[in-house]
Amino acid sequence: MQITQAVLLMAHGAARDVDDLERYYTHIRGGRPPRPEQLAELAHRYRAIGGRSPFFSITERTARRLEAALSARQGMPFRVYLGLKHSPPFIEDAVRALIADNIQRVYGLVLAPHFSSLSVGQYLAAAEAALVRNPSPPAWVPIRSWHLQPQLIHMLAERTRAGIQQFSPRERLRLTIVFTAHSLPARVLASGDPYPRQVRETVEAVMEQVPGAFRYEFAWQSRGRTDEIWLEPDILQRLPELYRQGTRAVLIVPVGFVSDHLEILYDLDRQARERAQELSLGWGRTPMPNADPEFVEALVQCVLAADGAGDAAEVR
Fold first, then answer.
1. Is residue 184 within 8 Å of 105, Cβ to Cβ?
2. Which of 61, 63, 222, 300 could pair with 291 in a Cys bridge, judged by C-beta atoms 3.0 to 4.6 Å apart?
3. How many Cα atoms occupy the beta-carbon half-sphere of 51 within 13 Å?
4. Is domain 150-285 classified as CATH 3.40.50.1400?
5. Residue 141 has what DSSP assignment?
């Protein structure tokens, strides 16, 4: 049977291992090789998480499970092509593959729930540019954001509730739940970029499903190493302030990420956790969605809802 529908599943990409770091770092710098000290710092981080990123195996497993779930739901074969911004298979390679397979309808879905012109917008634009280079491109259905998708919110709320339970009743009295997402340059605020607003909308939707009067707030993480001003507060700066304000335990909920990779396994589990331990703060972090069935179902619903959401859909 001819497969005519597909998802172009996109993500940032990563270095596969320490040997791939220079290639990756050069690519994210627009072809400019990193300085030796920059490369050494990134290599240190990779070795601290075992020398390899789990991003690729997790993302490939997510793609295959999404493909199977969509095919079963639609009652006909559905293909999922994986396209990455900074690692092979690149977005352009995935588009060439789906064109060669004569796909007639393509849903563009980025593994990031919140839209920013500096992230999701660039992935969608790269895919569209590759598609229109063909004389007869397939129908294109881009999904801009899915930050309030009900299955996503339910899953995050469940994991937040479970995370609270790992603390003793006494610790819960002075617990702060800290939601995090990847920081961006602060110039996105002047442009009216929806990213900060959408992240906070996700946080509020999650906490509506978490019973109890728990203190919660939001902090950014994993800011870039540039001279620009980045969004604040940063998680590493915020932890000491929380301690001074009376917090004695923190539960980290990384709502801006969907899989284990360097920003989770090092920036949070090593760097932020060590900062918390220095302050004698109790520590917990909710597990990432990765390729869990409930998360895959959320992605399925994103695709199914996109047809009725208009151009450049924001699905809920």
1. no
2. 61
3. 1
4. yes
5. E
Strands 139-145 and 105-110: parallel
- Amino acid identity, residue 204? E
Give the domain ranges of the chain: 5-147+292-314, 150-285
The tally of CA atoms less than 13 A away on the side-chain side of residue 229 is 7
Q: Residue 195, SS3?
A: helix
Identify which of 139, 174, 183 has the alpha carbon closest to the alpha carbon of residue 249: 174
Class of domain 5-147+292-314: alpha beta
pLDDT at 315: 58
- Whether the CB-CB separation of 271 and 264 falls below 8 Å is answered with no
| 283, 36 contact by CB (below 8 A) | no
The pLDDT > 70 percentage for the chain reads 97
Whole-prediction pTM: 0.95
Residue pair 203/255 in contact by the 8 Å Cβ criterion: yes
